[in-house]
């Protein structure tokens, strides 16, 4: 293992996988807090433990507010978006229920639903997206049935960057008393999210992408009145003599010792986001992204997939190069140009099936808060050379 690996030389355009690098000040503040009071929060009454508990509570409060929620206790910490989505989907659906989702989803939605379908008699409908990668809310509403319990939708695509009209979908669900679960893995921290205004019942997020926290963090905000069944139980630090897991939030969905270092990271990352401004970060990313997309679009032999609209969009794109396997293109970008991309199906097989890229996938580039103009220029130049090379005489 080369712990002296020089990450400075990498042009990192894989921010949809995780944002990198994280703001150094966030990492330093979190490590310092953990070094000073990284004990087990909520388990004892000594001062150190109370301070650790306060840090966890203040982070709940900050994140709940960030998402437009007014109940900090309904902000539940989880290991990542996948964990949060499993808690929500498994804790809300049961035998005989019908769920609706879309073909834009990540496997962290598809697989929990498919397991419930195969093993627990849950019925699932997958609504295809329209031309341009957006799902029509009316198409979802047309599939409502008397036993529809839940709609699960992706907010921002990790493959083509489209941002779904969640508020419109939420309004249709609310009119019918159907719950809406939103996968905000790609949007939390870079697009405004308001659970009330968007009629979201359960918001699932990850901490290590645009929220700029460490990996191993994430969670869900569960609207007041929505009761998610617990699917894992254990120690909570309170009411230890009671034989069953507590129903009160956040204990209801949290069991065992939490990720205090990671939560400290989320806390200080919230301060970073407030200083730099979420809308300013989005503006910065989209400005670079527009240059990247326009540059790639002009290259002979390069096809952009999904959409090229900059409206309702995250700074994520998928492309292929005629005559080249996407995996090979990614390898060339890495080995010859030090550019980090993501190739293949990006854990979202249905979107690729619908786009006709289901066999080999695409090359994905995604811009993050730490990228600069030189990074996107380098990517355009590299893909230009790779595409030209395919047809070059030997
Ligand atoms: C749309 C979407 N949903 C869910 C996830 C899963 O997030 P995590 O790996 O943090 O569980 C990802 C991660 O790439 C994603 O892009």
Shape annotation: globular
Order of helices and strands: EHHEHEHEHEHEEEHHEEHEEHEH
Distance between the termini: 37 Å
> How would a textbook summarize the main sheet?
7 strands, mixed
The number of helical runs is 11
Average pLDDT rating: 96
Characterise the protein shown here.
With 394 residues, the chain is α/β, with parallel strands linked by helices. The protein has helices at residues 24-37, 47-66, 81-92, 107-120, 137-142, 166-176, 260-276, 278-297, 326-337, 349-355, 373-390; strands spanning 11-12, 75-78, 98-102, 123-127, 148-154, 179-183, 202-206, 218-222, 302-305, 316-321, 339-340, 342-344, 362-366. A seven-stranded mixed sheet has the order 2-8-7-6-5-3-4, sandwiched between helices. A four-stranded antiparallel sheet has the order 9-10-13-12, with helices on one face. A two-stranded parallel sheet has the order 1-11. Helix 2 (47-66) packs across helix 7 (260-276) and helix 8 (278-297) runs parallel beside helix 11. The protein has eleven helices and 13 strands. The site of pyridoxal-5'-phosphate (PLP) has 12 residues, from helix 3. Pyridoxal-5'-phosphate is lined by residues 80-82, 106, 108, 154, 158, 183, 185-186, 206, 218.
How are the SSEs placed, and which strands pair?
Blueprint: E1 11-12, H1 24-37, H2 47-66, E2 75-78, H3 81-92, E3 98-102, H4 107-120, E4 123-127, H5 137-142, E5 148-154, H6 166-176, E6 179-183, E7 202-206, E8 218-222, H7 260-276, H8 278-297, E9 302-305, E10 316-321, H9 326-337, E11 339-340, E12 342-344, H10 349-355, E13 362-366, H11 373-390
Parallel strand pairs: 1-11, 3-4, 3-5, 5-6, 6-7
Antiparallel strand pairs: 2-8, 7-8, 9-10, 10-13, 12-13
Helix pairs in contact: 1-7, 2-7, 3-4, 8-11, 9-11
């Amino acid at each position: 293992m080369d712990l002296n690996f020089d990450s400075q030389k990498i042009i990192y355009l894989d921010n949809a996988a995780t944002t990198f690098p994280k703001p150094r000040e966030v990492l330093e503040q979190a490590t310092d807090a953990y070094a000073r009071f990284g004990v087990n929060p909520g388990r004892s009454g000594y001062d150190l433990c109370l301070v650790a508990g306060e840090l966890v509570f203040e982070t709940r409060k900050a994140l709940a507010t960030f998402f437009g929620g007014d109940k900090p206790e309904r902000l539940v910490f989880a290991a990542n978006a996948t964990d949060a989505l499993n808690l929500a989907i498994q804790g809300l659906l049961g035998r005989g229920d019908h769920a609706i989702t879309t073909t834009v989803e990540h496997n962290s939605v598809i697989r929990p639903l498919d397991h419930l379908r195969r093993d627990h008699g849950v019925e699932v409908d997958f609504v295809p997206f329209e031309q341009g990668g957006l799902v029509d809310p009316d198409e979802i509403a047309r599939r409502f049935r008397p036993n529809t319990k839940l709609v699960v939708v992706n907010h921002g695509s990790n493959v083509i960057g489209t941002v779904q009209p969640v508020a419109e979908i939420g309004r249709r669900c609310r009119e019918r008393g159907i719950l809406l679960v939103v996968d905000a893995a790609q949007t939390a921290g870079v697009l405004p999210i308001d659970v009330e205004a968007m009629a979201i019942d359960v918001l699932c997020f990850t901490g290590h992408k645009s929220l700029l926290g460490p990996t191993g963090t994430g969670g869900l905000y569960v609207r007041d009145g929505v009761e998610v069944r617990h699917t894992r139980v254990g120690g909570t630090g309170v009411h230890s003599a009671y034989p069953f897991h507590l129903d009160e939030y956040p204990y209801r969905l949290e069991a065992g010792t939490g990720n205090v270092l990671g939560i400290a990271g989320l806390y200080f990352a919230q301060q970073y986001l407030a200083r730099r401004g979420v809308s300013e970060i989005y503006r910065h990313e989209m400005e670079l992204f527009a240059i990247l997309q326009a540059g790639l679009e002009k290259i002979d032999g390069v096809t952009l997939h999904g959409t090229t609209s900059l409206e309702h969009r995250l700074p994520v794109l998928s492309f292929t190069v005629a005559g080249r396997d996407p995996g090979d293109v990614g390898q060339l970008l890495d080995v010859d140009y030090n550019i980090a991309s993501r190739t293949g199906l990006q854990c979202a097989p249905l979107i690729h099936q619908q786009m006709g890229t289901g066999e080999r996938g695409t090359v994905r580039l995604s811009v993050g808060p730490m990228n600069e103009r030189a990074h996107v220029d380098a990517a355009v130049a590299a893909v230009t050379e790779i595409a030209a090379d395919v047809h070059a005489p030997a």
